[in-house]
Structures are given as C-alpha cells and as structure tokens.
Specification:
The chain is an all-alpha fold. It has one domain: Nucleotidyltransferases  domain 2 (Four Helix Bundle (Hemerythrin (Met), subunit A)). It has helices at 3-29, 32-58, 65-78, 80-84, 87-104, 110-138. α5 packs antiparallel against α6. The longest helix has 29 residues, at 110-138.
Length: 139
C-alpha cells in the first residue's frame, strides 16, 4: 500500500486505541468531558481510515465530511465491495453517535459507546481487508 494510505490506517488504529483507553479511564473517574473526548477520537479513527479507503480507490483526498459522504456514495455505484460492506451507512452511523450525539450533544450512553467502539474496530478491519485486496489486484 502507498505510504500515505498506510500512515492513515496506522493513525486510525492509534486513535481508537487511545480513545478506548481514555474511555475506560473516564468511566472509572465519571469524567463526562473525557468520555465525550474519547468518542471524538474514535470518530477520528473512522475519518482517517475512510480517507485511506477513498484515496486508494479514487486517488483523491476528501476535504470534509460532506465530501466523504458523496465520495462513498459514488464509490458504492462502482465498487461492489464498498456497497456490500456498507461503508457509507456505517460512516454515517458513527458520525451521528460518536461525533454528533456524544461529543457535541453530550448524550452519554456507556453501553451504546461500548458497542460503537466495537463497530469502529470492525470498520477499520473491513477497510484494511478491502485495501489489501486492492493492493493485490494492482500487482
């Protein structure tokens, strides 16, 4: 994989690790601000790995959440795997819960966030598998 794509994947993986650590510490301390911050870090993991996926498939870097949504929508029209894996819907679901509800609105549902962290991991792993397949086809 290209170095930029590898860098974005590594960054996504690092963000989710830091997010989970902060989340678990914040729960123990009942620190609502840090819980919200941990959700935002988990959301950033989604952003970084989505950028890697889009760059690998289009050669273009999205500049906003809107552009990511549009690019994912367009990729679903041309790439069966992107559509079957539901990256756009999954991206939007993480956006709503992690970024919108938890970070901005301050809605803190610990059990929901635990599920969300699992879904962040799953999203990253699915993106990595797809990216490896893309790399193999290019060889």
């Amino acid at each position: 994989m290209g170095s930029k794509i590898e860098e974005l994947i590594k960054e996504a993986e690092e963000f989710v690790i830091v997010a989970e650590k902060e989340f678990n510490e914040a729960i123990r301390e009942n620190d609502k601000i840090r819980i919200r911050d941990s959700a935002e870090k988990a959301w950033n993991a989604i952003v970084q790995v989505t950028n890697a996926l889009i760059i690998a498939l289009t050669g273009k870097t999205p500049m906003s959440h809107y552009e990511r949504r549009v690019m994912l929508r367009e990729l679903e029209k041309t790439n069966v795997q992107v559509k079957e894996l539901g990256f756009r819907d999954r991206y939007m679901a993480r956006y709503k819960i992690l970024h919108g509800e938890t970070f901005y609105e301050g809605i803190i549902d610990i059990e929901e966030l635990k599920v969300e962290f699992e879904k962040v991991h799953s999203y990253i792993e699915d993106a990595k598998k797809l990216l490896k397949g893309i790399l193999l086809r290019r060889l």
